[in-house]
Amino acid sequence: MPLSNSYGREEKLKSRKQIDLLFAKGKSVNQFPVKLIYLEVPDEMDFPVKAGVIAPSRLFKKAVQRNRVKRLLREAYRTEKAPLIEYAQNQNRKLILFLLFVDRQIPSYALVKEKISMAIPRLIKELEKTKITAANENS
RNA sequence: CUACAGGCCCGAACUAUCGUUUCGCGCAAGCGGAAAGGAAAGUCUGGACAGCACAGAGCAACUCACCGGUGAAGAGCCGGGAGGCGUGUAAGCGCCUACAGAAAGUGCCACAGAAAAUAACCGUCCCGGUUUCGGGAUAAGGGUGAAAAUGUGAGGUAAGAGCUCACGAUAGGGCAGGGCAACUUGCCUUAUGGGUAAACCUUGAGUGCUGUAAUGCCAUGUAUAGGUCCGCUGAGAACUGCUCGUUCAAGGGCCAGGGUAGGCAGCAGGAGGUAAGCAGUAAUGCUUAUCCCAGAUAAAUGAUAGUUUAGAAACAGAAUCCGGCUUACGAGGCUUGUAGCUAU
């Protein structure tokens, strides 16, 4: 599968069941004002990483504002996701992921992009740890 | 020209790169097309559409309210009438109006005032008594108030009063002229004991209820094992606002637990848009030509850079679809009215 900057239908997290599961059991990486919620799943999926975005209506009352924040998150994820996909493919791990925005101010695109580019290496690092502990438990 | 108020128009364009949703073509790679708003908003209305209901009677609730037209319909729109406000000597012009009924009934009318509805505090007048008082008549005058019993003049009277008369005002009725009508003009006649119906209410017209998470279909999947209460002395269900009434009726309610939560249709060709012509004061209608113009479901229109421009900033994101109403808002343009200044 070639790496590209596209962010198509098969890469989006759509199943309501998986979303409920993610919020119930998922772990998180905080990189204020962006928060990643992730969960490794055993299920077979058509793409190694499925991701969605959220702008809480609690923080943004108007639909226009929520749309704006979600578009920024989506665009930043699209440009910065390459290392994560590559890692998941190489290690053959399946991941579901949500990007939350937890500030009240509508951010600039530059800020969101910077924070996500910082958060994704941290996420990979966390995944590396859980892999080691799982391996230890198994042995 | 400036300020204020009302109405209308517009709601940036283009290029490049990387992306999203969808449609068409193609085996595929890919190529090509389309992609938020004037309010998409509030969910306030009217419909379309869908489901359930539709033997009957009563009650309740809600909506509307000058006339005519328009339209699928309306709490909309257009035109007209009436009333009010502003301006003006006036004519006129502009703006506003939930504009049926107060002569069916009930209620309410703060403060002030004698009194807020069938009004005697002061005053005026008469009678009795004779320094003060008592009985009566009287709405002309006084002050209060948002509002005080139809205005002015004359007659009249003890003093007064629509008590009578003249000219008016307001309301009802009649006749005549104008108008499809609301209404209006003139004449005659009757009455004149307030306001409030965005108080209850009355009159007239109308409304079955629910709402696209409607609804239909396909797929997947199981479990009702348990607890408790009620029940043929009728639980409960249907007639979907409620009651009566009618019909059915042996299982039903609650707690706990299990399964599913995927897909298709609805769902994008419509009371559709644009242009021209015709009819009409207008709203609007008709004809012809032409266009296809979002369709998601954790939910698509974005990011970056540059150019144009005085500036790109306001309010704000489709979720079944249309017609309206209301509210929010930016820079500029057009237009109407008022005020001011300058010039003529």
UniProtKB/TrEMBL annotation:
Catalytic activity: Endonucleolytic cleavage of RNA, removing 5'-extranucleotides from tRNA precursor
Pfam families, alphabetized: Ribonuclease_P
UniProt EC number: 3.1.26.5
Name of the top EC class for this enzyme: hydrolase
Keywords, sorted A to Z: Endonuclease, Hydrolase, Nuclease, RNA-binding, tRNA processing
Gene3D superfamilies recorded: 3.30.230.10
InterPro entries noted in UniProt: Ribosomal_Su5_D2-typ_SF (IPR020568), Ribsml_uS5_D2-typ_fold_subgr (IPR014721), RNase_P (IPR000100), RNase_P_CS (IPR020539)
Residue ranges crossing the lipid bilayer per the database entry: none
Record carries keyword rRNA-binding: no
Subunit structure: Consists of a catalytic RNA component (M1 or rnpB) and a protein subunit.
Similarity comment: family membership: Belongs to the RnpA family.
Free-text function comment from the UniProt entry: RNaseP catalyzes the removal of the 5'-leader sequence from pre-tRNA to produce the mature 5'-terminus. It can also cleave other RNA substrates such as 4.5S RNA. The protein component plays an auxiliary but essential role in vivo by binding to the 5'-leader sequence and broadening the substrate specificity of the ribozyme.
Name the record gives this protein: Ribonuclease P protein component
Organism: Danxiaibacter flavus
